[in-house]
Batch of 3 targets.
Target 1
Amino acid sequence: MRICITRTEKNAYSETFIRNQIKGLSDLADVYTIYGGRLPDKKENDEIIGSKLLWILHKIFKVFVGRNNVFSHYGLKKYLRDHKIDLVVGNYGMSASHMMPICKALNIPLIAVFHGHDATDKKLIRQYKKRYKKLFEYASSVIAVSQVMKMKLIEMGADENILRVIPYGVDLEKFKPNRVPYKNELNFLAVGRFTPKKAPLTTIKAFHSVLQNFPEATLTMVGKKDGLYEDCANLVSELNIEGSVIFPGVLNQEEIVALMNQSLAFVQHSITAPNGDMEGTPNSILEASATGLPVISTLHGGIMDAIVHGKTGFLVEELDLEGMANYMTQLCENPHLAREFGDEGRKHMEKHHVQHVQIKKIYDLAVEAVKK
């Protein structure tokens, strides 16, 4: 089978879930990837899809009309025909909706994968209301990465019969417990973008409360220094806890695994952002659990599916700063409980979030769609 996978960016550092999807499906089928915005315009080797002249005409037309057009569609149709594509997997609802008329014209089945903001951002949903309706009518399957997202898509008009919940998986060989002999080190770890929906300021405030009883504790916040980073750095300075909060920036996978194996717990206070934006199923939370870390997070999005409260971690209501601080303190008081939770978290990942198993589910949907 020949599968074309679309993505908006080629090297978005935070989109490991799409890179994992591409790698996993490549083990099962011939995979072609295209990228470059909501309607892709570049091949994997960065070449423009279609001719340079058509690309220029598309850009000019888009400036005056404000939308994609016949010139961009022509190049994509030719690309799909030339590569004898059997099926398209559109990552993010916006990209899938833009690919829909192209797939429909060529009678190529389409699987749409919704990841987070594409199913929750209020402004975006209003903007794409008509496109999503047409997408739901044509798509062979629509994948949501959490139960909460599935309900959001049903509210938008998706037929439950075509909806499938397939959370992300995690590579259990890369992310696995490799602890040094037991030490009573009170290190908390957060990995993710400094965005409103991850509420990093709330995490810092909760950690500040922990320091009142455990001044030796540390919080390491891994992520690109943009978005709310400056606000976070300023808050740390105002609270006079610069020696306790570490901002290492972006780290590679091996460095993150090493940090996880040196930490007491993983923390992330995900919330619904003012614009409605929500998490899907955060990859970093799955990776932390696979590495044997208890997770302290919120009753939000796919986190409620990934973390079992009181067994693999603790979940609090969104913006419950005191609750988060209390659970962090509880693990500081009882590091052995943290280890027990971490062991259960690893088992939970092995049962529900094995990467190749989750990706095989997408492949099976593709096979079914092509047969039909």
Note: The mean pLDDT is 92.
Target 2
Amino acid sequence: MKKITVYCEVNHLNKKIADVSYELITKAYELTKKAFGLTNEEYIVEAIVLSDEIDDNSIKKTFAAGATNFVFVKNDCLSKFSQTVFAQCFVEYYIQSRPEIIIFPATPIGRIVAPRITTMLNTGLVADCTDLDFVVRENKMYFAPTRPTFGSELMATILSKTLPQCATVREKTFKAEFDKNIEGALCEFYPNSYEENRIKLVRSIFDKESSVNDFLNAKIVFVAGYGLADHRDKKYFLRLEEIAKIIGAKVGSTRKIVDLGIMGHEYQIGQTGSTVEADVYIAFGVSGAIQHVAGMKNCKTIVAINTDENAEIFNYADYKIVADAKMIIDELLEKLR
């Protein structure tokens, strides 16, 4: 029986599994069905956690999301995250388990530990994927992760020639579903060959004035596109932020706006920025480049405002408004003030 292993990230304060892990388990479960339909190959989903302890309810949720096996890699050294120690413990388990596919979350921790693990395993890694699939080439089935490339203007599906085949996926790319009726097996593994963490924190600097624009739980998101740019004047961005503050929305931007220096990177939505899954997403003067769409395609209701009736963003919109986004902002602000 072949395995798709999902590296589950743990909050080491409350010992609960992060939501992104359930999203990846659900997608991995879908892939097992796809594999059997293509070639009759049987895969199971294996959820793996590295920690000193874990919340019991989190374990149950992995089975409900689609995991057949839950592997608890347990050691006191795993009470706090250390990229070197975690990588060594994971690789020690991999040598015994040998999964064909490993999926990591593209979180700050996942982006640190995944490259280290894959380097130790002498295999490749497809980073920041927007989709995961299986394809058949010359009667052989391959794991097929897809990600934007060439300046985020094209989508590339990358097939690995080495095992394990590995990928990282950003939060909110897939939706977690807890409707699987699976009787899973709980296994414990005790690593013993790890070395002490060789990375030491010398100095910590934190700017109290800075703030992170957190889109993960935003219900309404306004996005400022290049259509609002006017010689790098921030007038309409400030107006959009005023409207957002009144109705409780978050404001984001496209990459072009960040590159112009009008808004900071923390506002950027897209493949190289944040991913949003809002109830309502409203695009003001957004063209709809592939890079940006990768970060907003899972929003429930998409409204697009653009003067170009052929703008790419309209292909993803539920509601299309062919108009000047600046005029719409002026009218909204006048009514709300």
Note: The CA atoms of residues 271 and 291 lie 5 Å apart.
Target 3
Amino acid sequence: MSRLPYDDQLTPLNTDSLIEERVRDLIGRANLRQLWLLFLDVNDMQLPLLIPIDGLPAHPEAGTVATVIDNVVELMADIGAVGLVLVWERYGAATLTAQDIAWAHELAEACTNARVRLRAMLLSHRSGVRWIAVDDYCA
């Protein structure tokens, strides 16, 4: 768990481009395979907590993903978060793989089932960051 240097004057992350810019600044290009959690308050301000989760299986398992999101829900309640930004980090091309799509689908479904406001999902890859649109994993 990482605490971010926090400034009350941060810009609310109320547009997709601001979210993508923040993820590019904080996480940037991929080094490892892990999932990052960024938390938003009621005003879409990022809370000063950035959590990487590593050691996840190569292929998502519904029970594992649901357990991760259930734990995230508890943490969100503790820190006053109402929104979540997920970043899947893996070293590779910017093109979404079948694994990326499967992870995005399972994460989105677990968030829906847990009634978590999933504000965005992005991919950190070897060249930078890209948005993962709903159409990318629901098609």
Note: The chain has a mean pLDDT of 93.
